[in-house]
Amino acid sequence: MSNIPILDGLFVGFALFLVYRLYQKRSNSQGHLPLPPGPKGVPLAGNLWDMPVGYEWETYHKWCKEFDTDVLYLNLAGSSIIVIDTYEAAIELLDRRSSAYSGRPRMTMVNELMGWEFDFAFMDYGDRWRQHRKLMHQAFHPTASENYHPQQLRAARRLIQRLPTADDFIAELRQMAGETIISIAYGLDTQPKNDPYVETAEKGVHPLLEAGVPGAFLVDSLPVLKYVPEWFPGASFKRKAKEWRLLALDMFNRPFEAMLREVERGTAKGSFASDGLQKMKSGLGGVYTEENIKSVASTMYQAGSDTTVATLGFCVISLLANPSLIKRAQDEIDSVTDGARLPDFGDEESFPFISALVKETLRYWSLAPIAVPHLLNIEDEYKGYRLPAGSVIVPNAWAMLHNEVVYSDPFTFNPDRFLDSDKTMENHFNAAWGFGRRICPGRFMGFASVWITLASILAVYDIEKDIGPDGKPIEPSHEYRSSILAFPQRYPCKFIPRSNTAKQLLLLSHDAE
């Protein structure tokens, strides 16, 4: 059969789409207020060809400084992008006006082609999203998060037993984080190495980190391209999406089905998913449906592992670059434990420097530099500028967390800033978690997991750079891939027991398993 009708249809559809965009732009331009400043675009494409291909947050911040603005306007072939560069603007728009700014853009690549519509982090604002959010809040508000301390503590203890012989620190962190979240979400046991559930999560999430960046794929700006056949020149995104969709569905289905088998056998352990199903069967109803429980468990599975791995991986890079910080942290731990026991969650108030290390890691490395974009569902006004309805809102968390007015010398890793931080600094730090109704609901559990793991490692180990074949220390790279989540490159390092007492603690923790 001839492909000419298909091509004709595509070209006609694309032409109609451009006509619609021009009409939409003309209609929007009738507003009496100017749009926010931004780089001048070209006809039809707008700023499409100006978009950075990596480290977008740095370019956005540079443009904001050039135009002396805290909100930046970009036109991507008729789609309006608003970049928010300051914490004050983010609070005004995303928090105080959250009813208008809590939506999500269409995200054609992620949701429609890759199959991530199950993840409420990418859902548009509405009843389905509210049900998922309610389930997450019930499970992970500050008090409820404490229920998961035993799983987090057990995973941290197992990690420190493996570190002396580990040849891939990042892989060990991934095993620890995966073990934690799989136990919490599904009640499943994991293998100490090459666990299938941990590997499934890694394979499923990796493509999302690339595709979730605004502007990463043209189909997000021109959704009509989703109808282009896979064989068409330039349609490699369709082939990628087909492959990535299978990985996402495997992550969505595999652990949940394993948990269901345990429930049928009567051997299921308590977990978010199994407890939720029990509530559903007992007649609670409401948000407790199998679809909701399965989707939220998968969201936890996806979101809970990579952020923990990235935070700890970046923290150790910073400690290797600043060895004196390791000694300070160890002195703080020893002053409380006398070296006679491993840290526990009850020590948190006594370990302010450990907490400061975690906070400074989240600030300095800005793990979610531009977060997941919001959607403005009505036309709005800010500082005399018109913000068009349907605009994609991109909060530049990286810029907010490196604001030199709030954080002196922001490009220096300095945890001391959080030991005597004022309210302004603490408020700005919240940019690490997101904004408004879209703020990360798992932030309390995530912080706790990083905190107990870091304290456990430093209680028993000195950390040193590995030595290369040339006899020189191997410097970990401070570069990271540009994606929706900053993630460290793999690097070698050595974990050396601090003393015979530390070795004894490791043996005792192993015997307690």
UniProtKB/TrEMBL annotation:
One Pfam family cited in the UniProt record for this chain: p450
Pathway it works in: Secondary metabolite biosynthesis
UniProt cofactor(s): heme
Binding site for heme: 440
Source superkingdom: Eukaryota
InterPro entries xref list: Cyt_P450, Cyt_P450_CS, Cyt_P450_E_grp-I, Cyt_P450_sf, Cytochrome_P450_fung
MF annotations from Gene Ontology: heme binding; iron ion binding; monooxygenase activity; oxidoreductase activity, acting on paired donors, with incorporation or reduction of molecular oxygen
Keywords, alphabetical: Heme, Iron, Metal-binding, Monooxygenase, Oxidoreductase
PANTHER family on file: P450, PUTATIVE (EUROFUNG)-RELATED, P450, PUTATIVE (EUROFUNG)-RELATED-RELATED
Protein family: Belongs to the cytochrome P450 family.
Stated name of the protein: Cytochrome P450
Organism: Cyclocybe aegerita (Black poplar mushroom)
